[in-house]
Amino acid sequence: MNQTLEQAVAAGANLLAQSSESAKLDAQVLLLHVLDKPRSYLFTWPERLLSTEQQHSFDTLCARRLNGEPVAHITGQREFWSLTLEVNATTLIPRPDTETLVEAALGLGISENAKVLDLGTGTGAIALALGSEMPLWNITAVDKVTDAVALATRNQQRLGLGNVRVKQSNWFSSLDNEYFDLIVTNPPYIESSDEHLAQGDVRFEPLSALVAEDSGMSDIKQIITQSRDYLLSSGYLLIEHGYDQGFAVREFFKTMAFVNIKTIKDLGENDRVTLAQWP
């Protein structure tokens, strides 16, 4: 029996409640994906009946979500910094916590025509968010994964942000003789034994984008160490990290002779981003 939009959301939310902490929102997003309509449509036409084809599609998507598949992978897109980004299983799904890094970078007050580098760009989320806010910044976004480079390039082209270029590079490997006013990164920082790797959406994301050795610090340490050869004088490095890594990141910044070191909390009041300046 075909449901109304209101009934479909209620039924979907009830089904997904056992596997999702945002069951109603998940049901709404999946239904809107089937309908190809904006969110307001659900409230304007709650009594409208789904067609048989729409009902089948919605039920199929809910079953995928019930199995744990991320909503972003099901719909193929995710909102980040008011930008709609294509996403897939080749890289991380952009998360709201990462907007903390974007806000911090925009708040530094650096030059209007700054050169910026985004390491491990994935979908391109950070670079594209910065590029949308600072049209005169010259932004380079790199990733070592070929499929991620292709994904970020598609996002860049669809958004029409000509001040962002995407290229393949394993951290700094393809950036000889380039210097930047600002380097930003959301590197792998989860310890391989972390129990959260077997929970939620991360089960469907590549471990190479999540896990780092040395208690999650190996990539962070490599980036801090190598960035000294690519930062201009007084340039900044901003790193997203785990909620319990703020102290360790600050201490390593000190060891590498950075100054003006500061950790910023995310919306959940957890340590999330540490920034420092190269003297």
TrEMBL record:
Substrate binds at residues 186-189. It is an enzyme of class 2 (transferase). Keywords: Methyltransferase, S-adenosyl-L-methionine, Transferase. It comes from the Bacteria. S-adenosyl-L-methionine binds at residues 120-124, 143, 171, 186. One of its GO terms (molecular function) is peptide chain release factor N(5)-glutamine methyltransferase activity. InterPro entries: DNA_methylase_N6_adenine_CS, HemK-like, N5-glutamine_MTase, PrmC_N, RF_methyltr_PrmC, SAM-dependent_MTases_sf, Small_mtfrase_dom. GO terms for biological process: methylation. Belongs to the protein N5-glutamine methyltransferase family. PrmC subfamily. HAMAP family: RF_methyltr_PrmC. This is Release factor glutamine methyltransferase. The lineage of its organism: Bacteria, Pseudomonadati, Pseudomonadota, Gammaproteobacteria, Alteromonadales. The gene is prmC.
